[in-house]
Every structure is written in C-alpha cells, then in structure tokens.
Specification:
Structural class: alpha+beta
Number of strands: 14
Oligomer: single chain
Distance between the termini: 73 Å
Helix content: 25-40%
Strand order of the largest sheet: 6-5-9-10-12-11
CATH class of the largest domain: Alpha Beta
Largest sheet: 6 strands, mixed
Order of helices and strands: EEHHHEEHHEEHEEHEEHHHEEHHHHHHEE
C-alpha cells in the first residue's frame, strides 16, 4: 500500500484520532505517541510558521537584525515597493506580523519571531529549541579538545534564524576551498560546492520543526558536513533522490530567505546538491531520519584535503587526453603496460597516499583492476560526470600522480605514473 500524502495525515481507524493513529516501522505498526501525533498534524500544513502569537507585539523583534535583513533585501531587490515601508509594515508584508480581527488576535507570527526575534522571547515561545554550529575538523573521538569553533546559545549574540544563517554559514564556507570563476571580468568565488552547501543549510532551516524542540545543528568534520534538524521527512529519501519535493514545512521563512537570494521555492534545492556533488566528484550525499530522536540528517561528504582546480586546468586535461595516442598496441605489449600500471601504483609514496581522497583511491583501484576501462565506464562505476572525473584527475596531478592514457580512447589503456617533484637533488 503506498504511503499517504503528508497533507492527508494523520490516517486513523475507528474514528479515533488519539488511539487509532499508527506509525509504520520496519518491524510493524505501532501507536504514535502524543508528540508524534502533534508532529503529523503540524506536517499536514505548509504554513505552520504563519501562526500569530497573540499579544507578542513588534517590541519583541530585534531591530538590528531586521535592519540587517532590510539592507540585504534592498541590495537584492533595488527599487522594490517594500523599500519605503515602515519596519512594522515591512514585516507584515513578509508574513512576519499579522492580525485576525474575527478572532481578536494580533502580533508577530512564528516566522517573524524565529527569523528576527529577540532571544528572550524566542526561548519563551520555543523553550526546548536552540541552534548549534560546531567546527570539529581534526577533532578525534576522546580528544580533550571538544571543538575548534562553536556558535551556540551563550548570550553573546541574538540567536534568531537570520543571525544564525549569516554567522554560521559564513564560518562554514570559510572552511571550504573557494573555486573562483570569471564572469566577464568579475571574479565570482564559491562555485558549485558553495551553492550545494547553501542549499543544504537553507533546507535545514526551512524544513525544521521548531515547535518540536531539539537542536538544529551543523557539524563541520574533516571529511563531511552533517546538517541535523528536528522533524521528519515529509516524503521518502528515495523520492527525494529521484527529484520529487514538497513544500517546505515553514513556507513563510522560506519566502523571507528567497527574497534575499537564498533558494528559489521551486523544489530544485536538493537536486542542486546532488548535481554539485556529482560534478565535483565527492561521494553521494545522504539524507535520512533518525527516528529515535525525531531528527533529519543530511550528510555532505567532502575531501579532507579538498583542493579546487580551475576550469582552465580541466580544459587543458580535456585537450590533452589525446596527446598520448600512439595507435593500437598488441596484447603482449598491453599486458606489459598493465604491469607497469601496477608498478605505478606501488611507487606512490605512503606520505602521498595519505592525501588521496576516497574518490581518488577508488579511481586508482578501478584502473589497476582494469586498465582498459573508459572514462564513461569510470563515471558509471562512481556515479560521476566526466567533468567530475577530470577534476579528480587534475587534483591528483597536484599530488604528482598522473593518469596517462596510452592508445586510442576506445581501445587504449591507463598507466599510473608518480612523478617526483623537481629538486636539485634529483636534477641529474
């Protein structure tokens, strides 16, 4: 039986919402807890963050945060009709402040408070929720050092969404290599890696269940980025990987972020992440639920020694792929060359091998097992594009490991060479 759409949940039996609602697990079905039932009810709506917090007026907004956002808004939307509005009118038009005369309520919305609110008020309305960013690069389990850098609820900053986004995302991006491209005569830093990380960060913020409580946590580790948010997936991971998508759990917050250039609201965010990681040549991202703690984890694997190679370098490799063409070889010579390829692997010094990423080791392993493998076959084996493979090949050349193609593209074979760096000692 197919899973029901999240808007139709909770599904219950015997006309009893409390006792008739079940959750399907691998081992069978079980009754949902009260907390899980509340989550299902919240998840049936795409605008839970538009809830008006009655009598929590504009004084609960941190003006410095709002003005920082307005500066970003004006820069991204020159001449916009919101530019000349008062602060409260501006917030109202964003969906951060509202009134319902029929019900006699007025105040900031959940989105407005979470995005721009003062710390004290946020902790009062969402007492069990907090943000946490941890730089854990090089930190080993059991080490006396717990983190390199941390941003958390410590009273030194106003811990709302906008400030966490601007502070933590900047800290995170500074740990990553910047690709740097020329658009006309302007240098644009970042590239696909930065775009993918931004999309993951925005998804974590907009799909978080803030009412559930818990920690929205970003871990930067040596070989991966882990983004964790309270809540559950609204559709299965398989559907997400296939390109399906849902409305964000917090559509008002999503709109606020889109208005300053974060995200596009058309469901392409996760596809951008997958495409970026495939093109760069990093292992496949993973998204899953941690049912015991009601969290969604997005893991973005990275190279611990990530080196960015310019497009010019990759283009040179494209042109140079055929420079080693020497025509078809006999099987005997081919076998001899195959052994030389294995010798090439053995001659890579141990201290150099330590810097090889998982993807690069996999490329070398596949070539050593089958020197005749084509670029296309390599890509299929690794789930990578040819551009991603060429980026990895260029990175290995920085380590003086060269993949030399002998013979034609179709019938030739690979040879792995380690070329010692030039020094005065080996000049002769």
């Amino acid at each position: 039986m197919p899973e029901a759409d999240y808007r139709q949940k909770p599904i219950y039996i015997n006309n009893d919402l409390q006792s008739g609602t079940y959750k399907r697990l691998h081992e069978g079905d079980r009754h949902v807890t009260q907390e899980e039932l509340s989550m299902l009810i919240r998840d049936s709506s795409d605008n839970a963050d538009r809830q008006i917090l009655n009598k929590y007026g504009f004084e609960h907004i941190d003006i410095d945060t709002l003005h920082g956002y307005r500066n970003a808004f004006n820069g991204h939307n020159p001449g916009h009709m919101y530019a000349n509005l008062s602060d409260q009118e501006f917030l109202t038009n964003l969906g951060g402040y509202g009134a319902n005369p029929q019900m006699g309520i007025e105040g900031v919305t959940a989105a407005g408070l979470l995005m721009f609110g003062k710390s004290v008020t946020i902790h009062q309305i969402f007492p069990n929720f907090r943000f946490d960013y941890l730089n854990l690069i090089g930190i080993e389990p059991g080490s006396s050092m717990k983190w390199i850098d941390r941003l958390t609820d410590d009273g030194r900053w106003v811990d709302n969404i906008y400030n966490f986004l601007t502070l933590a995302l900047n800290k995170l991006l500074l740990t990553l290599p910047s690709e740097g491209r020329l658009t006309g005569v302007v240098r644009i830093d970042g590239g696909e890696l930065f775009e993918g990380v931004r999309e993951g960060f925005i998804n974590t913020l907009t799909y978080c269940d803030y009412w559930l409580g818990g920690v929205l946590r970003i871990d930067r580790r040596s070989d991966r980025i882990v983004m964790r948010n309270p809540g559950t997936l609204r559709i299965s991971p398989e559907r997400i990987y296939e390109g399906d998508y849902t409305q964000a759990r917090n559509s008002t917050i999503q709109k606020m972020l889109r208005m300053i250039g974060f995200g596009d609201n058309i469901g392409s965010g996760f596809r951008k992440i997958l495409n970026a990681w495939k093109n760069i040549g990093f292992p496949h991202p993973d998204i899953h639920e941690e049912n015991e703690v009601n969290e969604v984890w997005l893991t973005l694997p990275t190279d611990s020694n990530a080196l960015i190679v310019s497009d010019d370098h990759v283009n040179i490799l494209d042109k140079g792929e055929e420079t080693n063409h020497r025509g078809e070889e006999t099987n005997d010579k081919g076998e001899e060359r195959s052994h030389k390829g294995e010798d090439g692997l053995r001659q890579i010094p141990e201290n150099i091998r330590e810097y090889l990423s998982y993807t690069q080791r996999k490329i070398l392993l596949l070539i050593s097992q089958n020197p005749y493998i084509s670029f296309k076959q390599l890509g299929n084996e690794l789930g990578m594009t040819e551009k991603g493979l060429r980026v990895q090949r260029a990175k290995m050349e920085i380590l003086n490991i060269h993949l030399v193609r002998e013979g034609s593209t179709k019938s030739g074979k690979w040879r792995v060479e380690y070329r010692k760096p030039y020094t005065e000692n080996n000049r002769k």
